[in-house]
Amino acid sequence: MGDTLITIVAIFLAAILMFIFPLMSISDRNDDVAQLSVQTKTVEFVDNIRSTGKITQDNYDAFIQTLAATGNSYDVEMEVKVLDENPGKKTAQTSTDKIGENIYYSEYTSQILEKMNTSSSKSVKLKEGDLISVSVKNTNTTISQMLKNFFYSISGNDTYNITASHSGVVMTNGSE
Amino acid sequence: MKLQNMTVIFSIIVIPVTLILSAYIGVQIDTAHLQQMYDTKLMDATHDALAAFELNTINNKYSNNADSIRRDVQAAINTFSTSLATGMGISGANSSYIMPYIPALVFTLYDGYYIYSPNEYTYEENGVTKTGYEHILKPYIHYSVRYKTALSDIVINYSLDNYITVYGNISGVGYIAKSGYLIDLNKVVKSGNEVTGYRVTNTYTLQTNIVETLSEKNEEGQVVTRQSDSVKKYYQEAYEFTNWLLNEVRLQDIVRPQNAVKSDGSKYEEFAGDNTSILNISSTNDPEDRASAFNQHKREIMRISIQENLNNAIKVYNEHSPSMGTHANFQMPILTDLDWEKLLTNINIISFMEGIPVGTKIYNNYAIVTSTQNKQYINPNSIYFIDNTNTYHRINCPVLEQSLNSGSNLIGYKSIDFRKMQSTVNDTTYYYKHPEYACYTCIVNTLDEDINVNELSNVQLQAYYSAIARERYDLDKITKMLK
Fold it and tell me: Are the beta carbons of A169 and B431 separated by less than 8 Å?
């Protein structure tokens, strides 16, 4: 009787050690690698926009394709903060010794994509001083997430574990 | 063997493998992150340097003077090292700590470039001669090349646009030194010897014999107007210079790529057998056309010049990096075609960084940042036009187009004239030369369309090309006196 119990326990242990643990570990690593690749590509994409001052259709498509190549689906959010110096100029002109304050207004993913599609140059141009930020997170459930949900019983829709973001100031005028 | 034993053996084998693998991947991920962080920091520091350069040159009236600009370049380098140190979390570290990791900084300007890199220095202290290596700003190098035949010896300085300087000895003619803009003479319209127009497009002839009334505000907020005939002078002098060049048949004959020689007198392998006459300006070799033989050769010369001097600087760095406290064999990264495109069409800063350990590797990368707000070079895309509603626009702005009629007097100024200026007399004050506001369609929100001259109206074309001609002519150039 005691022997049977131990055997059953041993089989469970063996199953966990021989299958589940390696599987979880490998799928975790898989996500790490996906994370690395997503982070690298996001930084590259943003830094390219910053140094050229343009968001081009070509670069955007290439970015989306490399993301898809990791085997997951992603939600890409872009935000451009457009620098408006006019209010600052108005303040500065009322008194010559005052430096005016600049303001920013934002444009988001759908607006950016629409501008990109409608312009003849297939690109959105930015100017020196604008801010760009891009954030990416996975929308599907990866194997690692699935296993974790199963074993640790974490639930909820917004548990994503591949995420990357990068932002910075645009360094050059895209139209020149 | 019992199942339990097999499980234990399997676990003993598999668990360490998995652990080591995950640790290894972890290290690789950290390395990649660190590398990326350094990439961004390097780019940010380079941008800070550029911002300092732009700010200083805009407020420096003499910034086109070589000596005066050295000061601005040096200030930009200080900004670079401070910004880099701060970015890497060692703010307060002085530049001698961070600079050994910088093999070179290159400032490419209108007609040449500066290289900031380590070089040998010698000084005497108490009768003992000491030598060492430290970063210095090397003399300005022009985009120049020497063409040599058996009897003649000519040097040409190129620039980012169609301005060149020619000097040297032509056999049978003697010593010459001239500079000017090159234009396509087939497009020139003249009465007698006076240039009155230039066919800028197939359908429009630019009126060149005009006097423009320009106005701007000074430090005290007063409007100052002046009459400018720079457009007329630009085309007249460009016509005379190009005409002179075309009549110098011997000069035409010397300036061929195959005659180009390096500083040691040997020929360029790149140009072997290429006997295109570069200065034979015609409608098929239009200096304003990017694909013309003139432009192709010019870009090639600029590229070779930067590459050679940079290689030399990096060779010195490699040989002597131990004396600066780093030891690495720096491999110069290969600049891509896109990078060269940036370098040869605008003012830029290139920075190289090398030797910092990142995880399992040694960091080695570069950053290029383009300047679009400077007064060293007049970019045809960075000229803004003031309309009658107190707003300034790009030439192809739809809002501007609607406000124009055939009698409109449209005047353009270079974009940096719209930036905030600093003035220090007793107190530091700020002012705008042009107090108009930026258009929300084309400037605040950059217009996505490129300028297509065939879609512009006559009023727009007249304003656009006269502004380019005037700003180009008014750009200070050291060789301007060699008319």
Answer: no
DSSP states of B27-45: HHHHHHHHHHHHHHHHHHH
d(CA B382, CA B143): 23
Among B413, B407, B405, smallest CA distance to B386 is for B413
What amino acid occupies position B73? V
Residue B379 and residue A176: Cβ atoms within 8 Å?
yes
**Shortest alpha-carbon distance between residue B452 and chain A (Å):** 11
Write out chain B residues lying below 8 Å of A166, CB-based.
40
Name the residue of chain A whose CA is nearest to B433's CA: A93
Distance, in Å, from the CA atom of B362 to the CA atom of B353, rounded to the nearest integer, reads: 10
CB B15 within 8 A of CB B54: no
Task: Name the burial class of residue A51, with classes exposed (0-12), middle (13-18) and buried (19+) by CB atoms within 10 angstroms of its CB.
Answer: buried
- Degrees to nearest 5, angle at CA B378 with B380 and B158: 110
Instruction: Kindly give, in sequence order, each residue whose CB lies less than 8 Å from that of residue B226, ignoring residues fewer than 6 positions away.
Output: B213, B214, B215
Residues of A in contact with B339 (CB under 8 A): none
Q: How far apart are CA B358 and CA B30, in angstroms?
A: 8
A137, A77, A132: which is closest to A106 by C-alpha?
A: A132
**Looking at this protein, which amino acid is placed at residue B82?**
T
What are the two backbone dihedrals, phi and then psi, of residue A172, each rounded to the nearest 5 degrees? -145, 155
Strand pairing class (B153-158; B174-181): unpaired
Query: Consecutive sets of 10 residues in chain B, 483 residues long: mean pLDDT of each?
Result: 76 84 86 90 93 88 76 92 87 78 92 90 82 86 91 92 91 89 91 90 90 88 90 93 90 90 86 87 88 92 92 86 73 85 90 87 90 86 89 91 84 89 80 89 87 89 93 82 68
Is B9 an interface residue toward A (CB < 8 Å)?
Answer: no
**One pLDDT digit (tens) per residue for chain A, 176 residues:** 568 888 888 888 777 777 787 788 888 888 888 988 999 999 999 999 999 999 999 999 999 999 999 889 999 999 999 998 888 777 766 665 666 678 899 999 999 999 999 988 889 999 988 999 999 998 888 888 888 777 776 665 556 788 899 999 999 888 87
Interface A–B counts its CB contacts (< 8 A) at 141
Which among A17, A36, A174 has CB closest to B29?
Answer: A36
**Judging by beta carbons within 10 Å of its beta carbon (0-12, 13-18, 19+), is residue A97 exposed, middle or buried?**
exposed
- How many angstroms separate the CA atoms of B298 and B305, rounded? 11
* Interchain contact B33–A (C-beta under 8 A): yes
Query: For B56-95, what is each residue's pLDDT tens digit?
Result: 888 877 777 767 888 899 999 999 999 999 888 887 777 7
User: CB distance B370–A125 less than 8 Å?
Assistant: no
CA angle B413, B418, B422 (to 5 degrees): 130
Distance in angstroms (rounded) separating the CA atoms of residues B416 and B418: 5
Question: What are the residue ranges spanned by the domains of chain B?
Answer: 3-141+301-371, 143-211+228-292, 383-480
Whole-angstrom distance, CA of residue B198 vs CA of residue B162: 16
Chain segment B291-334, per-residue pLDDT in tens:
899 999 999 999 999 999 998 888 888 888 777 777 667 777 88
